[in-house]
Amino acid sequence: MRIGVDVGGTFTDFVVLRDDGSLDTFKLRSNPRDPAQVILAGLEQAAGKHRADVVHGSTVATNALLERKGARTALVTTAGFEDLVHIGRQNRPELYNLTPELPRPLTPRELCFGVNERAFFDGTIERSPSPAELARLTERLKRAKVESVAICFLHAYRVFDNERAVAQALENGPWYVCCSHEISPEFREYERASTTLINAYVGPLMQAYLERLGGSSRHRIVVMQSNGGSLSTAEASRQAVRTVLSGPAGGVVGATRIAALSGYRQVLGFDMGGTSTDVSLIDGEPRETTEAYIGGLPIRVPMLDIHTVGAGGGSIARVDEGGLLRVGPESAGAMPGPACYGIGDRATVTDAHVVLGRIGESQFLGGEMRIEAHRAASAVRRIGEALALDDTAAAFGIIRVANANMERAIRLVSVERGYDPRRFSLLAFGGCGGLHACDIAGELGIRTVLVPQQAGALSALGMLLADHIRDYSAGVLNRPDVEGEFRLLEKRARRELRGARLERSADLRYEGQSYELNVPGQREFHAEHQRIYGYSRPDAPVEPVTIRVRAIRETPKPSLACAAIRQNSRPFEARRCFVSGGWKRVPVFHREDVGGRAAKGPALVLDYGATTLVSSGWSFRRDKAGTLVMDLV
Q1: Residues 6+ positions from 282 with CB-CB distance below 8 Å
Q2: What is the mean pLDDT of residues 469-475?
Q3: pLDDT > 70? residue 367
């Protein structure tokens, strides 16, 4: 038995792959104060007394980073560079804002300690830290009562002996220790320091969480990482920074597989859950990046290119001081949740859908959870009164504002990356994705929308589909023997992940440039440069900055085959629903009752954990993979 577990802000999803190949899905309300307790309860429900292989998408690192609730962390760096993370790059995120609010560093200036060491870019070590200085550093860290230590020296990506010496001196102390040459051995000291500091900041929390989860469970647990692969709990504890997009990465893996089964190579992933929406671009394969920002801080490890916005089913609607309607980024979360869940009293996107008739009182989670429509109406009415609108207009306004936020996010991962969204299909999943997909697709000029069978738990399913992946990198700027460095990385990869397939790539740039593109080789570099920047210089010298090796060991994949599909669709009821600007009687279908022959919207299609709204002007059918396919007609 294999189980995928995705911890969301509102629900924790479980997908169970049994020995006979069957898939079961269920959800439990998340507990932000103790996520492990919900996971253990779900594993007990899924496996009973049996032992299972569990792939877990964790939000521990993400939440600690975004909420600034990590460990008390010190930065140990080269003397004279103690202000490194406070100076940063001096980039201006808002071009015309003369007083921008920059992200607060994870460690205060008084916890940044300098060490008298110096190594040069060519690997020459001029000075190593003395035993006396290391003893003084240890005492200073103890007096500061730090819980974690990040070590980042100036040229440690080239030669790491001095970092290792400090780590050995500190290894028996009451703290978590990590070094930049282990976390991100790459050129550019600020980004390397930021990545190492993030790892140190969230590492102790991840370590304690995984120890509790593993100690309380008899199951074999691995953790989803941000690059779309899984890694062991021991590795996740040491390299917690690699899990900051753990859950959304599972969704991208699942979306890629589902799109391929349905015959689509170019899709935009649209994962709208309870707390946030994650968007991604898949052009045959998911886009990846090594230049991500989380909470305004740079992270330089390979990860899937996912953009997150605070717009989900639980996003709270409010009227600001200027009398304008705002939706998110604050979320009602799992507790108290949307007003219609029976505890909270603030209007959310989910409450707006209830008021508009799109979510019925007895349809949620297959009828396991009752919806209190009167509470949703009361919450939305308060928004309407502040705007002098009736309930319907207020609810529809909440939906439109949320759509605008999500549409901007999709443009960011497509148009701003050099891709035309009109060439793509929109693959919508998450509990709320199908309710917004047609409207957002129409605004972007997208003509096909896909909603998979397991839409409400696709991230958890993607974790079951994920391979074991390890990424290795080395800074090679100004190094003569690049091939030799590749062979060293490959030797390490074969040792640490036996039986893996290895893939090479490199961060290349034209000489004189200050930015790179990651590509398999030089020929691909010219083509990618042309696509992104509109020009290329095939005759100009190209230099490698960083080389990368990816080790992939594939896991068994479920077939995801769908039972025979009838031709005609058969609704089980009709419901009064606000669609396409007016109230209409709309047919309602269970997914298994949708046929292979196209029918016309408007319509509602119900799944366990997800609802899809087919807008007027769209047709809908179910394909051989069980995916709901909607086309603009």
Answers
A1: 252, 255, 256, 259, 265, 266, 267, 268, 269, 427
A2: 93
A3: no
Instruction: Note the pLDDT of residue 64.
Output: 86
How many CB atoms within 10 Å of residue 130? 13
Q: Residue 214: in which H helix or E strand, if any?
A: helix 189-215
How far is the C-alpha of 430 from the C-alpha of 408, rounded, in Å? 18
Please give the CATH topology (third level) of the domain spanning 2-66+207-246: Nucleotidyltransferase; domain 5 (3.30.420)
CATH 3.30.420.40 domain range(s) in the chain: 2-66+207-246
The stretch 597-607 carries a mean pLDDT of 92
Rounded to 10 deg, the angle between the 131-143 and 161-170 helix axes is: 50
DSSP 484: H
CB 429 within 8 A of CB 451: yes
Closest C-alpha among 217, 218, 216, 282 to residue 249: 282
d(CA 155, CA 124): 10
Give the residue-averaged pLDDT of 222-240. 92
Residue identified by tokens 């991962």 is 413
Residue 137 has pLDDT above 70, yes or no: yes
SS (H, E, C) 395-411: HHHHHHHHHHHHHHHHH
- Nearest CA-CA partner of 544 in 509, 503, 496, 499: 509
The secondary element (H helix, E strand) that includes residue 74 is strand 73-78
For residue 169 the two structure tokens come to 């001196």
3-state secondary structure of 155: coil
Q: Mean pLDDT over residues 195-211, rounded?
A: 94
Tokens read off for 407: 């549409």
Angle formed at CA 497 by CA 492 and CA 501, multiple of 5 degrees: 95
Q: DSSP strand E in 233-287: where?
A: 266-272, 277-283, 285-286
- The structure tokens listed for 203 are 């590492």
By the 10 Å C-beta count (0-12 exposed, 13-18 middle, 19+ buried), 168 is classed as: exposed
Say how many CA atoms lie within 13 Å of 460 toward its Cβ.
32
- Residues 156/119, Cβ–Cβ less than 8 Å: yes
- Of 370, 403, 377, 406, nearest to 392 by C-alpha is 377
Residue 261 pairs in a beta bridge with none
> From the CB of residue 369, how many other CB atoms can be counted at a distance below 10 Å?
15
Q: Are 316 and 348 in contact (CB under 8 A)?
A: yes
Q: How confident is the model at residue 569 (pLDDT cuts 50, 70, 90)?
A: confident
Nearest Cα neighbor of 353 from 301, 383, 314 is 314
Question: Residue 249 corresponds to which tokens in the numbers above?
Answer: 């990465």
The Cα 168–Cα 464 span in angstroms is 38
Q: What is the pTM of this model?
A: 0.90
Structure tokens at 129: 């830290």
In the block, residue with structure tokens 């009687």: 585
Residue type, 618: W
